[in-house]
Amino acid sequence: MEACALSLSNDAIVTGLASFPDRDQVSGPSTLPLIVAVHGGTYSASYFFADDQHSALPVSSALGVPFLAINRPSYKDTTPVPPFPEDSTYLQEEGRHLHQEILPAIWKEYASRLGVSSIILMTHSMGSFSAIIAAALNSDSSLYPLAGLVISGIGTKLRQGKGLETQIEMLKAKPAAVKFPVEFKDPVMLGKPDEKMADPSIYKQTLALQAEIPFGEISDGLTQWLSYWTKYTSRVSVPVMYGLAESDRLWEVSEQLVRDFAAVFEKSPRVESGLVLGSAHCGELCRVGRGWYSRVFGFAMECAVAKDLGRF
User: Do 76 and 85 meet the contact criterion of CB atoms below 8 Å apart?
Assistant: First the structure.
């Protein structure tokens, strides 16, 4: 794993963590994708490299597929979202920033160096929102070759109850950022220890993985996103893989809701979807995490070949 930082054309900076296997030592696929991972709220790029058992690193190294997890705007040392007009929203502007600045900079810096043919976006929770917007904007653009979109940690209906009410109440004070205590957050993200969806060791990492979430991000995600999201999903024209955690406590869960989510990607040439059994909201940090990473890398390699062959 290595730290990375890139300067963008608008003088902003994006930082992240990466696994770039040595192609002279690992025999990777002939058509190589670059997986760019986009973390959710209250985490950072380290979410994808939590510890030896909960990381993209072993799968990336074994398959020879490069993996870059960015810190989204306002996380770690990444520059905040630029100022935007009142008729837009935080996540829509973050999506535009991802599409117009971050992904083109990543492609320019790493495409030739790594020998990759395309980008696959792997997204989780609130990171999925801006990534969906970027993928939609990419359908009418040639700034970078996007070949696939992996989504987890979001659904079509927020779960009503005390958890959502607590978050909405916190927003009334309009803080610059929100930091949830791990005592509140861990059971929601990982399940309770006695449910055994997550290894005991990962609960020891959650404080180190903790990050503040910008007010604009959480406010948009909880109160506005579902009013406009389908105008972006309807434009996505690359293959999509979607997984909804069986025990997600932030979103309503059912087989029908999974089908409803998949149906809004009407221009995608291929949509794979299903419940991720045995998983809480943060699947990458649960016991199923290594299996989920394996599926993501497999999907990414398939999509890279399909794009190379002109299938979409």
Answer: no
